[in-house]
Amino acid sequence: MLKRSGQDNVTLIGEEMGDKGHFWAGPDVATLPNSKIPVFYSTKFEDFEKGCSGKADCYWPAAAFTQTLISIEPEVKIDVSFADYANGRDPILDAALDRAK
């Protein structure tokens, strides 16, 4: 929503999302009959890049309120290594704070 409303005033920083701008969301739950373990799964589709209106499994707010399609690929790409994680470093946060100065 920030990128859609802010356009060029918003800079996405970080790693590319694994499923890019289209993904499943809208959780639902089913309980397994024997173990009674709850299993969560996604039932609604969202596509920020191409839109999904008119599809039965489209998340209705995304279809109803999406006016402009956007890319959510980061403009500033930063890969986070395991060494960063293991040492408590967050290069994405560091880049965001540097740009905010």
Describe this structure in words.
The chain is of the alpha+beta class. The protein folds into two domains: 45 residues, no CATH class; 50 residues, no CATH class. The chain is 26% helix and 24% strand. A two-stranded parallel sheet has the order 1-4. The two termini are 24 Å apart.
- Describe the biggest sheet? 2 strands, parallel
- SSE pattern, N- to C-terminal: HEEEHEHH
Strand order of the largest sheet: 1-4
Helix content: 25-40%
Give the number of domains.
Answer: 2
> If you average the pLDDT, what whole number results?
85
- Residues in β-strands, percent: 15-25%
Structural class given helices, strands, pairing? Answer: alpha+beta
The rounded Rg comes to: 18 Å
- Please mark out the parts with pLDDT under 50 across 5 or more consecutive residues, or reply none: none
Distinctive features:
101 residues; 4 strands; 2 domains; alpha+beta; two-stranded antiparallel sheet
Short synopsis of the structure:
The protein has 101 residues and is an alpha+beta fold. 26% of the residues lie in helices and 24% in strands.
